[in-house]
Design brief:
Chain A is of the alpha+beta class and about 500 residues long. Chain B folds into two domains: about 170 residues, Immunoglobulin-like; about 160 residues, Cupredoxins -  blue copper proteins (Immunoglobulin-like, Sandwich), CATH 2.60.40. In chain B, about 5% of the residues lie in helices and about 35% in strands. Chain B is built from four helices and 25 strands. Classes of the chains: A alpha+beta (about 500), B mainly beta (about 425). Strand 3 of chain A pairs parallel with strand 1 of chain B, so a sheet runs across the interface.
């Protein structure tokens, strides 16, 4: 894949608004459908969304939502609303129109509050974010109903002075204006300390294939969706707010229903009756609006970097259920929790995302430390490396790279054309690792269908610190994934090709 | 379905060109591959267990695991609960599976092999939570394979607390009991006279806490097996778990409950079911396999004097659940949240948190950014599923009390007026 192809196909990804100061590191990344603007212009409206297990004619899996839609720049509507990136001190003009039947709002805690916007009305305003960090913009009226119905999105404020000339200072840039000493020490060590060889967080590598952006960062906006409850809200009396108490009773405490439509369950003793009815608890779970394959295999949601390319992830929860976010492959440092930059950033494999919590974490992107090595203390081998029974180095795992599971030659019928077959063999390269909620009910869709839930990951596409293996081998579908499919235009949602 | 006022439909994204990734995501292949990058295993624990008569090693330096074995345990009211468990064919006491699975202890730095068979019915996997190897050894089906048969290979690099579990249809398999604890110990833990007992050592950085004798700093890279470790005289393991008896006794009979399937045309004729695995309602609680008494919502206690047999603890005698210890001794408590709900643990004494998730705090260079810290007595420590702490206790005055573990409904946490404690468990602590 030539480097210029990344720019040409560069706009098929996750809807992203860059307000104010330019962010070339974001605009050039093909995984983001990013548009620059000086003004935010949103409509509050509604939509029906086809969910992860939706198979037209076979399993109509849809859900009603309230959404923030960006009018200009124009993005395809989705829940959550577009990610918004801005810089400390930038002035943002905002205009919000309410196209629904009851009062709604646009609220960023500590930053901007539209106040109630009446049905049909438009509210305009201006604000300047003053503190770098991660925020959730949302509708704070009739809490938590309006927010949980889908009126939310990520609002990211970057610290100032990222652009332009900057001398190689004593300290590296961090995502914060005033990091704690320990957080500063961590960002200083990336790329300088011998135990974190590679790039600093602030450093990119435009010559790499695909190019490595500086300031690598991701947003995991967790949510839960209840089609039964959201439909009831959508059909409620126009002009009246749905009771927040009744909403939470349904979403959190709805009585158990033995939903079941599987013929296999007829074989249990006693058999479990067919029952198509779902209760009001959510049965879809999303990260940045997607579930299963659509978030796990999305390069704007799931980090796909090389060893030596540390990144940050900003994790939010717009719903009412806790998610316990477990990452494989690397432990991560918790650097900011609910606006408090950590004096004691612990290094964990799992952290807690409670409703309305926001936390930032740093993935060092070290070589997975429990691959056999000489020292056995989590450090990469220098020379000579540990060798296997066959006399090969244990890293990179080139024997593993050449395994296909399913095997090459496993054929199915193409999604686009029933007359064409596709080979669904999958190479064990690059290296794929999941990040999932360990409170496992959220890993389901429609009460089953494990692995169609709230899941992301960290993929290792190469190793900066091992000669000849800056890139691990990639098949065609990997290249497609990294560019999100054949030049989809900016106004289409991301995560694969355009819908046919 | 509510019709949108706007008329907007948000279509599902296409999977064209990514049919293989789509298919593998939730219908991964069942294979039995050879272990790539195979090294010679050097784990001394199986041979040690054989030397004290607890095991008969079938493959040199290799741990055996099979899953599943069906095991019936008893709930708080005497109701039998059907569980899916991991077994070890080399250890008679573990041959038919146990809940939880036997605790695996491994010295840091060895090449670890687990010869694993999926059965009853297959496929299954073992994921070693917190251990970080290559994907084929990581035990996640959609990133590698479900088995079959396979030798998992990794080398533990960080001393601390971990666990292992099946990662196939995890929502069901983990809840049904397919997990056990995993402890990484210093490289010399199984050499010398204390191999089968105490005191033992674990990773810590305790210059700021001189009340714990025997802490050694030094330099990890020097090869000193005791660098940044502290000895402990007593050890307690609290695997805090919950079970939904409906999931166990009704759904548990069907191991493929609501498992999706690729038919002939991915994205077009896939088979997705409707079920109720989104809706978990525990009515039984366990601490390291010990039933917590009393009904949901009613505080329950586990008995005193519960000890884990050496055969189920990699040959180490004396690991406790309920604590019986003496003053002026160091007690290590490992606390895992293995439920699907969140929990908070409250100790009746001061503790020092020395590690989270198998990473000791303040051990240079990789954790020079953080530090061990004291949690005063009666301060709740709250965390969510799969997280675990290592806590040190050392007191000069006797204690005759309880730790409490409160389980929070994962639905409604942090929501004003909606937080719900579904169960409180008490664990006896007696320090004389």
């Amino acid at each position: 894949m030539k480097r210029r192809d990344f720019v040409k196909y560069g706009v098929g990804g996750l809807a992203t608004l860059v307000v104010g100061s330019k962010m070339p590191w974001l605009m050039d990344n093909p995984a983001y459908a990013a548009a620059q603007t000086q003004n935010l212009n949103f409509t509050i409206t509604d939509a029906v969304k086809e969910m992860v297990t939706h198979e037209p004619g076979n399993n109509i899996a849809t859900c009603y939502f309230w959404i923030y839609q960006s009018n200009s720049p124009s993005f395809a509507p989705d829940c959550p609303g577009p990610q918004i990136y801005t810089t400390v001190g930038d002035t943002i003009n905002i205009s919000i129109t309410n196209a629904l039947d009851e009062n709604h709002a646009f609220f960023i805690p500590g930053v901007y509050d539209s106040g109630p916007i009446a049905p049909g009305a438009t509210v305009t305003g201006t604000f300047r974010p003053s503190r770098a960090g991660s925020y959730l913009y949302h509708d704070n009226l009739n809490p938590p109903v309006n927010r949980v119905m889908g009126l939310h999105g990520a609002f990211i404020v970057m610290p100032p002075n990222l652009q332009g000339t900057r001398a190689q200072g004593v300290h590296r840039l961090t995502p914060y204006d005033r990091p704690t000493p320990n957080v500063q020490k961590l960002f200083d060590d990336f790329g300088r300390a011998p135990w974190w060889p590679g790039l600093a967080w602030e450093q990119g590598d435009p010559a790499a294939n695909p190019p490595t952006p500086p300031f690598r960062q991701y947003v995991w906006l967790n949510h839960q969706a209840s089609p039964v409850l959201f439909e009831e809200v959508g059909n409620f009396t126009p002009g009246l707010d749905y009771s927040a108490t009744a909403f939470m009773d349904g979403f959190i405490n709805a009585p158990f229903i033995a939903t079941n439509n599987s013929p296999l369950m007829q074989l249990t003793v006693p058999p479990i009756a067919l029952n198509p009815i779902f209760n009001k608890k959510p049965h879809f779970f999303t990260i940045s609006g997607q579930s299963g394959h659509f978030c796990h295999n999305h390069p704007a949601i799931t980090p796909m970097n090389r060893v030596g390319e540390p990144c940050i992830v900003r994790i939010m929860n717009a719903g009412l259920w806790t998610h316990s976010m477990h990452m494989h492959c690397n432990h991560h440092f918790i650097v900011c929790v609910n606006g408090r930059i950590q004096s004691n950033p612990i290094w964990v494999d799992t952290f807690t995302s409670k409703p309305m919590d926001i936390y930032d974490m740093v993935i060092p992107y070290q070589r997975p430390p429990d691959v056999p090595n000489v020292l056995g203390i989590g450090r990469a081998d220098i020379s000579p490396p540990l060798t296997t029974i066959n006399g090969h180095p244990t890293w990179p795992p080139i024997e593993e790279f050449n395994v296909y599971q399913p095997a090459l030659g496993t054929k199915k019928i193409s999604f686009l054309n029933p007359l064409v077959t596709v080979d669904i063999g999958q190479r064990q390269s690059p290296l794929v690792y999941p990040m999932h909620d360990h409170s496992e009910p959220s890993q389901t869709a429609q009460g089953g269908n494990y692995n169609c839930g709230l899941i992301s990951g960290m993929n290792v596409i190469g190793d900066r610190n091992t000669p000849l293996y800056k890139n691990f081998p990639r098949d065609a579908d990997w290249d497609l994934m990294l560019t999100l499919g054949n030049g989809a235009p900016v106004d289409k949602p991301g995560g694969g090709n355009n819908p046919p | 379905m509510a019709l949108p006022k706007s008329g907007i439909i948000i279509p599902r994204r296409s999977i064209a060109g990514m049919e293989g990734m789509w298919a593998k995501m939730w219908d991964p292949p069942t294979t039995s591959p050879a272990t790539p990058e195979l090294c010679a295993p050097t784990n001394p624990v199986p041979a040690f267990m054989q030397s004290i008569g607890l095991a008969k090693v079938s493959r040199l330096n290799t741990v055996q695991r099979e899953l599943i074995d069906g095991v019936t345990i008893t709930g708080w009211d005497g109701t039998p609960l059907t569980c899916m468990c991991l077994g070890d064919k080399d250890i008679p006491l573990a041959k038919g599976g146990t809940y939880p699975a036997p605790t695996i202890r491994v010295p840091r730095g060895v090449v670890f092999h687990a010869e694993t068979v999926g059965k009853g019915p297959p496929p299954h996997t073992i994921h070693w939570h917190g251990i970080e190897p290559t994907p084929m050894n990581d035990g996640v089906g959609h990133a590698s394979q479900e088995i079959g048969q396979y030798i998992y290979q990794w080398q533990p690099n960080f001393i601390g607390s971990y666990f292992y579990h099946c990662h196939r249809n995890t929502v069901q398999h983990f809840e049904m009991g397919l997990f056990g604890f995993l402890i990484i110990e210093p490289p010399d833990a199984y050499l010398g006279g204390n191999a089968g007992g105490y005191p033992r050592r674990t990773a810590a950085s305790l210059a700021a806490f001189p009340q714990f004798p025997g802490f050694v700093a030094g330099d990890l890279a020097s090869g000193d097996p005791h660098a940044y470790t502290v000895p402990y005289d007593y050890e307690a393991l609290w695997v805090c778990d919950d079970m939904d008896s409906y999931w166990h006794n009704i759904i548990g009979q069907e191991a493929k409950a609501w498992y999706p399937a690729i038919l002939t045309r991915p994205g077009v004729d896939d088979q997705f079911w409707h079920g109720h695995f989104h809706d978990f309602n525990p009515d039984n609680w366990f601490i390291t396999g010990v039933s917590v008494s009393n009904a949901p919502g009613v505080t329950g206690t586990i008995p005193g004097g519960v000890v884990v047999p050496a055969a189920l603890n990699s040959g180490v005698t004396g690991m406790q659940v309920s604590i019986n210890a003496t003053t002026n001794n160091t007690i290590l408590v490992r606390v895992l949240c293995a439920s699907y709900n969140s929990m908070q643990v409250t100790f009746p004494v001061d503790v020092v948190i020395i590690a989270w998730d198998g990473r000791a705090l303040g051990v240079p260079p990789l954790t020079r950014y953080n530090y061990a810290y004291k949690v005063p007595a009666n301060t709740p420590i709250r965390y969510s599923v799969a997280r675990r702490i290592d806590a040190l206790i050392r007191t000069t005055t006797p204690v005759n009390s309880f730790a409490t573990v409160e389980f929070f409904n994962t639905r409604g946490e942090n929501v004003p007026g909606r937080e719900q404690i579904v169960k409180t468990a008490r664990i006896p602590i007696n320090i004389l």
